[in-house]
Amino acid sequence: MNFPYFLAQRITFLGKRTFSKLIVRVTVSAFVLAIAAMILSVAVLRGFKDEITEKQRGFFGDILVTKQDLNSSYENTPMSLSKARMDAIRTSPNVQSIYPFATKAGIMNVNGEVEGVLLKGVDSTYDQRYLSKTIVEGDTIDFNAENGANTQILISSYFAKRMRLKLGDDFIMYFVQEPVRKRKFVVKGIFNTGSQELDKVYVVGALSLIRRLNNLDDQEAGGYEIRVRDFEKLVPTTEQVNDHLPIDLNARNIVEQMPDIFEWLNMLDMNANIIFVLMVIVAVINMISSLLISILERTSMIGILKALGFNNRGIKRVFMYNALYIIGLGLLIGNALALGLFYFQEKTRFFKLDESTYYISYVPVKIFWYDIAGLNLALIIIAMISLFVPSMLITKISPIKAIQFK
């Protein structure tokens, strides 16, 4: 029979109500708070980073291929990629899709309101899955429509409200060029990305219209967007794409194009690390305090065990088993609390955010089982290692003095 384990059970479950019982409750509460805060921090951090990253990736693609020149206007210099080069890019293992696009500045004049916009033109090869998720009214552009896609347009809910436009309404957009041109559009869908940088700037239409306005042939575009399968391999994939391009074209990934957003997201990791350190410190301090008080309250018992021939190692194991029970109980309750809040938020989106500030209207959560397992294991290991030093107090206790101690 494992006597240290048996004795630890007696101390834990059948011991008299003492001051150490109160300390144990405080320690369990500290571990509940620590693991719950750590799990929820990881869930919110991962969810937030994934949501914001997906917004940028969904609208702009992962890698952008454009003409390498000094053009800094809203309209990229026209370019084209040969079929051979596009096929070569598609053979890259991490490339999921490649499609052309173009942008053109325009002016909406509707119901007495004037608004400058940037028309993003896409064709039937464009991956509209992200736009489909952001559509609040209507549908995405139908490139198979009988009357063509040139008159269809997607506008943001910001423009719809500001210009008093509804689904199916038509309006005129002016394009400032020589000569000035105007085109009639019909609102096919209304989207809301939650990002003011997108919603207050972009509308989405057909690439063929921009080609006609700019007198481009069917092979020319403002650039190409590339979608990758694994975002973690974005940098090497960008290098591979550049290897397939002529010297006058350049491929840049979304992290290079939008460094401010991704640096801000990386700074969130620092905030999470600070929370982890603080929670571990709180849990460890409470655990050490609980162990020391438990040892001091049972000094007489330790003296008797030593007098009966029980060695220091065995006595340490008694208190370590007791500490492991406290840690386990705290982690069990903490995990249940964290996962309960996680699933509640995932299903109800109860906790909200200011969309204009955080690019999203609710607190996003996402976590994997290995995140939870890793956090629990790390906290157990750190807590148990931190207890070795205070447990050395047992070796300093004299049996004779301990038995007389009250």
Automatic annotation (TrEMBL):
The chain crosses the membrane at residues 22-45, 274-297, 318-344, 367-389. It is a multi-pass membrane protein. Signal peptide: none annotated. InterPro entries: ABC3_permease_C (IPR003838), Lipoprotein-release_system (IPR051447), MacB_PCD (IPR025857). Pfam families: FtsX, MacB_PCD. GO terms for cellular component: plasma membrane protein complex. Residues 273-399 form the ABC3 transporter permease C-terminal domain. One of its GO terms (biological process) is lipoprotein localization to outer membrane. The keyword Transmembrane applies. It is found in: Cell membrane. Residues 27-229 form the MacB-like periplasmic core domain. Keywords: Cell membrane, Membrane, Transmembrane, Transmembrane helix. Belongs to the ABC-4 integral membrane protein family. LolC/E subfamily. This is Efflux ABC transporter, permease protein.
